[in-house]
Structures are given as structure tokens and as C-alpha cells.
User: Fold this.
Amino acid sequence: MPSVDTTDARILLALDDDPDATVLGLAGTLGLARNTVHARLRRLRESGALGAPSRRVDPAALGYPLLALVTLSISQSQTAETTAGIAGIPEVVEVLATTGDGDLLARVVARDTRDLHRVGNLVLAVPGVLRSSTVIVLEEVLPATVVPLLQRAARG
Amino acid sequence: MPSVDTTDARILLALDDDPDATVLGLAGTLGLARNTVHARLRRLRESGALGAPSRRVDPAALGYPLLALVTLSISQSQTAETTAGIAGIPEVVEVLATTGDGDLLARVVARDTRDLHRVGNLVLAVPGVLRSSTVIVLEEVLPATVVPLLQRAARG
DNA sequence: GGCAAGGTTGAGCACCGTGCTCAACGCCGG
DNA sequence: CCGGCGTTGAGCACGGTGCTCAACCTTGCC
Assistant:
């Protein structure tokens, strides 16, 4: 079912290893023809498996060194407006809807703890937000990666 | 204090809007000289504000359509081995160390709910893991973005 | 007021990667 | 046995890159 086969996985692995690698370079290191890599990359992009390259901007460099996770319980009657309100807060950089006692998980950045408190109040002020629970992220133990999944796919 | 000024923010915004934009194109749309954009991008990259372009691979296309969040309490005596063990599980795609009653938050993908159960047991089997609480992500309400922060920085 | 420094700008340069097309080859399934 | 599909090598025009240089304008300082 996975639309990516062994060769695709190897290409994606090599690309993850060196995001700036050129199609020509990939073909060389993988022992494939340039056209093959080109065609497969095009298929991966069109199938949606490979998203547009996202330029990662470090929030810390923008003056927001603090990262926190805010679990939210929201009123079930007006979820759309509530989620929109939360997503509209600039410091909220990601929102996930989840099962469980919390309904939303928001990833929030802040300039410092005082600023985090301010943002927390902003979130609580959004209509429909019932409760919120904030934890501070101390360390990114494992940065987001799909490499192990790709390695498994590469072995077939 | 932020090492990025108004012009930097505008460049990063344009780059976020079109990740495949060329230096030449950016210079055109922003009304800057090619050399200027070039120099600032180099500084941003060297300062670490702009990370290497990460090719986003959709886990769903790899056969892992399910995303879950696992909150973990771990024994404080052997945190290093425990976190390493958790990070070593292929389905674990991200791990954050947090304050609060849970010590770790793991982002986990799975093929289906049965598979998620299996992965949950894998996590629990890691020495040092005391408790775990799993919630399933129903929807990405707001995909990760720093655009609002950049817009604020762009206005100065 | 004048001076030095840093950022910006325009120009020019050689190099290389891109996206594409074409034709030929090999493999697998019908 | 034959048709289709993916791979491969070749070739081609185009354009972006990274770099250097010199000139300019601002900013801050003496």
C-alpha cells in the first residue's frame, strides 16, 4: 500500500541526509540514472508523499526562545470559532485536535516566562476555552524525523 | 535582540510563501538587489536562524496514517537510557522533555489502531517508563508555522 | 564638517543543475 | 510472443548560482 517503494525510500533517505543534494548528486550516490531520480521525485511530489521543502526558521532567533505545550478543553458547541481564535494568536505555532480529556493541543512560543503567562491568558480569553494546562518544553530530546520509517521502507 | 531585522523577516516570509523561490525571484518581488538577498540569506543560515531546508515526507504516504501523542512518566534515576530507548523506536518521530506530571511527550505514528497498541506496548516495555497516556490526533488544526511571528517581525 | 565602516547596489563572470525530449534497452504480465 | 512500463543514456536551451569588483549611500564617530 505505501506508494513509496525501496528505491523511493533510498532517494528520500539520501535527501534527508543532505537536503541540499541535487538530482545529479543523488543519482550519483545512489547509482541511478538522473532521469530515474528525476521521474521518481516528480511522482513523489505529485502524490503528496514529498511536500514542498519547508525552510525551517528557528523561533529562538526571532526572539521566542521559550516553547510550551498548552492542552485545552473547549466547549463543544462552538469549536470552529474557538479553534480559529486560538490559531489566530501569533505565538500559537501549531494546533492539534486530539482525543482524550483535552480537546486541543497547542504548541506555543514566548519571549520568556512572563510572556508565556501573557499568551496563556490570551488563549484562555478565547471564547469557548474552558480549561487550559501548560507545560514548558525543556529540551527537544528527539527532533522530528521520519528517518527510521524510511530506513524500514528502504529495506523492504 | 532578535538577530533578524525587518528586511530579513520579509525575505523569510517570501520564502515561506514560495519555498522554491530563487534568490533572483526574491530580489525581484521584494525590490532588493540580488546581492542583498544573497548576503542576508547567508547570514541567516550561518547564524542558525534559517535551518537547512527540510524535505517534508508525509508519514501517511509511508503507510503510517495514524498520529498519536504519548505522555510518559519515567523513572528519574536512568533518564538517559530511557529516553534513548524511546527515541530508538522507529514509530517515535519526535520526543520532547517537558515539565509537569508527564516527563516526556512522544509523537508516534502507526499503521492503524492495532499497530498503535503494539507501539504503545513497545514504549511501555522500555526500562524506566513508569506510566504512559496516549491520545490520538484527530486533525492538524493548524500546521506548524512561524508566519505570524515573521509578520510581526516584518512590521518592526 | 569631515571621515571611516558597513550595508546596498549594479555589473559581470564561469560553472553547473535543471527540466525536458528522444530513442533504445530490459523486464514482467497478458 | 508481444505490448507496456520503468530505466537508461544522450543531448539541449535556459537560467540560477556563488563569487568578485567597484561605486554608492547611509550611519555613527571624532
Observations:
- Residues 32-36, 39 of chain A lie near DNA strand D (CB under 10 Å from a C1').
- DSSP finds six helices and four strands in chain A.
